[in-house]
Amino acid sequence: MYYGLYLRELLNFSWKNRGIQEVFTRYYKTNFWGSPESLSGRGSSTASTEILRPKLTELLKRRNIRSIFDVPCGDYNWMKLLEREGVSYIGADVVAEMITENSRKYGDSNTEFLVADITKGPLPKVDLVLTRDCLVHLAYKDITEAVRQIKASGSTYLLTTSFANWPKNLDIKTGHWRPINLSLPPFNFPEPIEMVFEASEDKGGALKDKSLNLYGIKDL
C-alpha cells in the first residue's frame, strides 16, 4: 500500500483556515509543486499528459462535445496541446494572476479564461465540465458544494479524476491532496459512462489506476 507517500505529504502542509483562493495563489507564486515546466505541477506537464491528450480528443468526438468548462485550468500548459477543433473552451481558476496571463497568451475567439471558484456559482452551461486533479484537493464539504454548483449549471457531462483501486476515502483540509475513489462513500457516484485511464507515472508509478471518469450530470 502506498498510502504512506500521501500521509507524509499531508503532514507537510502548514495552511490552516485559509480560503481556496489564498491557498492556491500562494502555491502559484511559490511554484509549490516544484515542476520546472508548469506552475500547475508535474501532472500538467507535456509528458504526464502524452497518453491522455489523444484519448480526450477521441472522447470529445465520440460524445459530440462542442463546449468545455475546464476548472481548474491552471496555467493551460497541457491543454494548449489538446486537439479540439470546433470545440469552444472556457478555462477557470481561482488564481487571478494566472488567468490574466493565460488570457494574454492564449485567449482568442474560441478560448476564454475567467476567475472562478468551483464551489461558488454560477458556473457556465456547457457540454462538458472537466475537473481534472480538482476534487482531490478539496475537503468533503467543498466537494459537495462543487458538485452542487456543477449540477446547477445545467451542463451535460462531468469528466473528473478518480482512482479505481483506492480502498477508502479520506477527508482533508482544502489545499491538501489525496486520491479519491468516487464510487465509494461518502460520494457514491454511479457507474461511470466511460473511464479514461491516464497511465500516470506520478508518485513513482503508484497511481496507475488514475482515470478521468465520465458521468451524466443529471445522474449525480
UniProtKB/TrEMBL annotation:
Organism: Candidatus Colwellbacteria bacterium RIFCSPHIGHO2_02_FULL_43_15
Name of the protein in question: Methyltransferase domain-containing protein
A Pfam family reported for this protein in Swiss-Prot or TrEMBL: Methyltransf_25
Positions of the Methyltransferase domain: 68-151
The organism's place on the tree of life at top rank: Bacteria
